[in-house]
Specification:
With 724 residues, the chain is α+β, with helices and mostly antiparallel strands. The strands form 3 sheets. It has a 9-stranded mixed β-sheet. A 5-stranded mixed β-barrel has the order 12-15-16-17-18. The protein has a two-stranded antiparallel ribbon with strand order 10-11. ANK repeats lie at residues 594-618, 662-694, 698-724.
Length: 724
């Protein structure tokens, strides 16, 4: 007998909402033997019944691999299917009644990328229009024997059997670890459902009862996340099943886009991107029908004719903003971007979400306590909060050797049930000065993650994944990444770790290029290693660098034109200042873009020890003028630092009555600030007590400035000195 020919799909009729349905014919063998699965495909329009449910059932299942060793007949022609789907159809087939089903592997021509993309856009509607959604968990087996029945009994709180008969929690755990619970497409399928039925072999249980049973078992600690870590992601899925009959199934906007309006695409991606899909593009497409925003406006919609790399770039641009600087690498999802460090996670509490406390380092981000949704990768203490250039929402990252892993791509603060409460960023105060390599792993590495949490050295030993190294560049690029990591650690004030990474970068650079080219290693805005360690007071690292013949100790950065001596003086690092001065290769009066010298910065910071070190240098200029025509003595008086004023006066070089561009003297500034001790010292130096400011400043004298500020003791002092 010849074999039936292979089934060939006919194109769907033109129409935005036309689909195929499967008619599963009954087996009419009177002997009770199961005959070959016989089916028919028919074309159907979802518009026929308006908003009412349609009399078909939609199947939610896993393909179970790409191999298709089993065969069914469609319109008397053969169609190969997977083993798992074949088993599901056997259990779904009635003895004497036909059954109308929608099954993706059969109702969509999977070999036609264009049709596949069009039908995937309709899947939220297909499942929401279905009379019910049938969840097929696979055939029963010894290791899950009785699991669904135990869950059913646990759901009945009135039943005495729950307490009298022991629950087989291992069998339940094994059932819940089946592939269906890890698959990303099932989220949309059950989220859209009006009614869910869970099936395993010949056993069926109502979806709502299934969820209640699991809740009961978790509450009684018979099923714990600690004993079964894979269950940690289960609540997000069971919540969708439990609410099947409650939520609005879809909304329609003017563009006829159907969506379940669950959350924004960014939130959905952060929650579910580690779930399984045979095609990586489906990790995005499976979430589009649940998104509350409209990705299609940005051209983000199911399209199986574009590569994963193109789709990834579109997704990142949509989530972070079209102006985000993104470089996506084809073998691993990665982003190269400029960024600004906002803070670091100091603690995390997990309870139906994540309550995150943040140690702030940037005034532009005012939020210290943050309520976040549960994410696919849990936020941990030590994670870094940053803002990528062009993005509107912060990103949470984790240091892993010479790169950063993305934990949450777009962190959105929750306020009650909604995604509100997000503070506005003061972008005018942000400087995107860090070069960040972000690796965004979309796979689920539960065991690896647990081990990383235990290993305190993980941030040091983990390196860029091997499959990225060829695309990221050679050894020099690796050294640059380590140097960038050191800068980020410095932002976080983890100076010990930063110094360690800097040493590593220096060693690597010498190996790659030789010591004579070490000065080339720079961060954003030309910040050299020496400038950085001087700024942060890393004495040992300063000594190490100064011992290199190729290091110029007086090299200015390219943004502020500040030297290592300027940075060290401003930071109050006296030991570093001494080391730099001892080289006899630094210009003590070098000026930056604002006309400030190292001594200016020391005076502004009130660093007496450094001021003494600099004043010991005979070449240092005390009366130089900055870009606003102000001298050091003027700044010291304004700051009210009596000790610094005294140091400068002891040089016998200062002009006590020097006026700035506004006609203000040091005495007027001290009086205005209410600095009584400084006023008294200036009067001892015969400062002009009745000097007036410039006309456009109303000609105010020191007495008037003190009176306006309410500084009565200063007013009395000035009157006693003859002020009128």
């Amino acid at each position: 007998m010849s074999q039936p020919e292979t089934y060939s799909y006919s194109p769907l009729s033109p129409g935005a909402k036309n689909i195929r349905l499967l008619r599963l014919l009954p087996y009419r063998n009177e002997s009770g033997e199961r005959t070959k699965l016989q089916c028919e495909l028919l074309e159907y329009s979802l518009q026929d019944l308006g908003k009412r449910t349609h009399l078909y059932e939609a199947l939610s299942y896993t393909w179970g691999g790409q191999e298709k060793p089993c065969s069914i007949t469609i319109n008397e022609k053969n169609l190969n299917v997977t083993t798992n789907l074949y088993a599901a159809l056997l259990h779904l087939r009635y003895h004497s009644l036909e059954r109308i089903l929608w099954i993706d592997a059969i109702c969509i021509n999977q070999t036609d990328p264009e049709e596949r993309g069009q039908q995937v856009q309709l899947m939220a509607m297909i499942y929401s229009k279905a009379h019910r959604v049938l969840v097929w968990l696979g055939e029963t087996a010894d290791d899950i024997e009785g699991a669904l029945e135990d869950i059913q009994r646990a759901a009945n709180e009135e039943s005495t059997e729950v307490s009298n008969k022991k629950i087989n929690e291992k069998a339940i755990s094994n059932l819940l670890q089946r592939q269906w619970f890890q698959r990303i497409w099932v989220l949309q399928e059950v989220a859209a459902a009006r009614h869910v039925v869970m099936m395993c072999g010949s056993t069926e249980i109502d979806g709502y009862a299934f969820c209640l049973g699991l809740k009961s078992l978790r509450k009684s600690q018979e099923l714990s996340d600690t004993a079964f870590p894979r269950l940690q992601s289960l609540p997000a899925l069971t919540n969708l099943i439990e609410r099947a009959g409650l939520r609005p199934k879809y909304t329609t906007n003017s563009s006829e886009r159907y969506s379940l309006e669950i959350r924004s695409l960014a939130e959905l991606v952060d929650m579910f991107h580690t779930r399984q899909a045979s095609d990586p593009r489906d990790k995005v497409y499976a979430l589009l029908g649940m998104s509350s925003d409209d990705p299609s406006k940005a051209g983000l919609q199911p399209n199986y004719e574009i590569s994963w790399e193109v789709l990834f770039q579109q997704l990142v641009k949509f989530i972070l903003g079209k102006d985000t600087l993104v470089e996506a690498f084809c073998r691993k999802p990665a982003i190269k971007s400029k960024g600004c460090i906002l803070g670091q996670v100091s603690s995390v509490e997990s309870d139906h979400g994540q309550s995150v406390n943040i140690a702030l380092i940037n005034a532009a981000w005012p939020l210290r306590k943050w309520s976040l949704q549960a994410s696919a990768k849990s936020v941990r203490k030590g994670d870094i909060v940053c803002l990528l250039k062009g993005a509107s929402k912060p990103t949470i990252i984790r240091l892993c050797g010479d790169y950063f892993a993305v934990v949450v791509i777009a962190a959105i603060a929750l306020n009650g049930r909604g995604s509100t409460g997000q503070p506005k960023l003061s972008k005018s105060t942000l400087h995107f000065s860090r070069d960040l390599l972000l690796v965004w792993d979309w796979e689920d590495h539960l065991e690896d993650t647990q081990e990383q949490g235990k290993n305190e050295n993980w941030t040091k030993i983990s390196q860029v994944p091997e499959d990225l190294k060829a695309e990221l560049g050679d050894h020099l690029d690796e050294v640059t990444r380590i140097w960038n990591v050191a800068l980020v650690l410095g932002d976080l004030k983890e100076y010990g770790k930063a110094e360690e990474r800097l040493r590593e970068a220096i060693k690597g650079y010498e190996i790659a290029n030789g010591e004579e080219h070490l000065h080339v290693l720079k961060g954003q805005y030309g910040v050299t290693p020496l400038s950085w360690v001087a700024r942060n007071g890393c004495n040992a690292a300063v000594k190490l660098l100064l011992a290199k013949n190729s290091i110029d100790p007086d090299l200015q950065d390219s943004q502020y034109c500040r030297t290592p001596l300027s940075w060290a003086a401003g930071g109050g690092h006296a030991a570093v200042v001494k080391l730099l001065l001892e080289t006899d290769k630094v210009e003590v009066d070098s000026k930056d873009n604002d006309g400030w010298t190292p001594l200016s910065w020391a005076v502004k910071g009130g660093h007496e020890a450094i001021i003494r070190l600099l004043l010991e240098r005979s070449k240092v200029e005390v009366n130089f003028k900055d870009n606003n025509n102000r001298i050091l003595f003027w700044w010291a008086a304004k700051g009210g630092d009596e000790a610094v004023v005294k140091l400068l006066l002891e040089t016998s070089k200062v002009e006590v009555d020097f006026k700035d561009n506004n006609g203000w003297t040091a005495l007027q500034q001290a009086a205005k600030g209410g600095h009584l001790a400084v006023v008294e010292r200036l009067l001892q130096e015969k400062a002009e007590v009745n000097a007036a400011g410039a006309a456009d400043y109303n000609g105010r004298t020191a007495l008037q400035a003190a009176a306006e500020g309410g500084h009565l003791a200063v007013v009395k002092c000035l009157r006693d000195a003859g002020a009128v």
